[in-house]
Design a protein that fits this description.
Elements (H helix, E strand, L loop, with lengths): L4 H5 L9 H25 L5 H13 L3 E2 H7 L7 H10 L3 E5 L7 E5 L1 H22 L4 H21 L3
Antiparallel strand pairs: 1-3, 2-3
Helix pairs in contact: 2-6
């Protein structure tokens, strides 16, 4: 089997165990490179990727949401959602509100600082999306999207989700 680009990047001497292993490692390496670029952008605005995601969820809903609902909508699994919201609240991006009907339920609302920060990030985030995938044409992007959805469905089915 001919050496792949990933094999060279990893300085892997032998072949991958399978095409599935190579694809999985390729996905992981690509995701890492993309996350690094976004993390740098968000850090300039005092946020992590997970905090940015929470703010986007709240802005998109345009209403306070229970903490568990926010957690269910995040792009990546967030084990420390309470800590993330603590830091957002401390930074003035969000505020917590107790539910009047059920005091155990805590709602999170986005504050003006959170909205302003998101607005200032809208164009840079969109530009980064465009720049990182500029080399892939629209048809290939649609196909990649379709294939990633199939792969995610398989992962979720295997996990019993």
């Amino acid at each position: 089997m001919a050496s792949s680009k990933l094999q060279g990047e990893l300085k892997k001497r032998g072949d991958f165990e399978s095409l599935q292993q190579e694809v999985m490692l390729n996905l992981m390496r690509t995701n890492d490179r993309i996350q690094i670029r976004f993390a740098r952008l968000f850090r300039e605005h005092g946020l992590t990727e997970a905090q940015y995601n929470i703010l986007r969820i709240l802005r998109g809903e345009n209403a306070p949401l229970p903490v568990l609902e926010i957690a269910s909508r995040t792009i990546t699994v967030v084990p420390g959602i309470t800590g993330l919201i603590d830091r957002l609240e401390k930074g003035g991006f969000v505020e917590r509100r107790r539910c009047l009907e059920d005091r155990r339920v805590v709602f999170v609302a986005i504050m003006p600082k959170g909205l302003t920060t998101l607005t200032s990030l809208d164009d840079p985030v969109s530009d980064l999306h465009q720049r990182l995938l500029l080399c892939i044409n629209q048809d290939d992007l649609q196909e990649l999207n379709r294939l990633l959805e199939i792969a995610r469905d398989s992962v979720e089915a295997e996990a019993g989700e």
